[in-house]
Amino acid sequence: QHHATPLTPEARQQIQRAFTNLTTKAREAQCQANLRQIASACLMYAQAHRETLPIADTIWKDVRVPLPLLFCKEAKTLPNGYGYNALLSGKMLQDIKDPSHTLLFADCKSADHLIHSFDDIDQHRHANGFVAVFCDGHVEHIGTIDPAQLMLEVK
User: Fold this and answer.
1) CB 109 within 8 A of CB 116
2) Is 25 helix (H, G, I), strand (E, B) or coil?
3) Which helix (H) or strand (E) holds 28?
């Protein structure tokens, strides 16, 4: 007969840490999926409007996405956990010189859900970083902001 050996406190702690890491990664993956779909809706809007991105003031009304996509479980205080790069408001897609380095949406901490500067990005929401989607549609987790590598403005 086999008897179960009780877990040591250290083993319990290791299991708890592993579970916490898995939960954190799952939430980050959900945010990446949400941002990918939000960006897709935004780019479809632009295609339908002469290749022009939405105006910042009406982005959340114009780009219609299901409400659950706007929710990030790590954004404790905001119903919409993401922000639109307000510096792209009304810009034509062709004017974005480096779409793979220009933020379109990201984890955001501003109440208006708009990113006017890097200070509006919730830089520590996911595992000491944030999730962002770029104008070319790719999504990534970013650990630190390097303004030389990430752009908000159309240059």
Assistant:
1) no
2) helix
3) helix 9-48
| Pair of tokens at residue 71 | 């929710």
Q: Is 52 helix (H, G, I), strand (E, B) or coil?
A: strand
Residue 75 or residue 118, greater confidence: 118
**Contacts of range 70-75, beta carbons closer than 8 Å, 24 or more positions apart:** 70/34, 70/38, 71/34, 72/27, 72/30, 72/31, 72/34, 72/107, 72/125, 73/27, 73/30, 74/27, 74/31, 74/107, 74/125, 74/126, 75/107, 75/109, 75/122, 75/125
Span 28-86, pLDDT tens digits: 888 999 999 999 999 999 999 999 999 999 999 999 899 888 888 888 766 788 999 99
One-letter amino acid at 108 equals C
Q: Which residue has the higher pLDDT, 92 or 21?
A: 92
Q: Closest Cα partner for 32 from 149, 153, 127, 151?
A: 127
pTM of the predicted model as reported, rounded to 2 decimal places: 0.83
Query: Quick one: tokens of 20?
Result: 């916490």
Cβ contacts of 60 within 8 Å, gap of 6 or more = 70, 80, 84, 113
Helix residue ranges per DSSP H, 49-64: 59-62
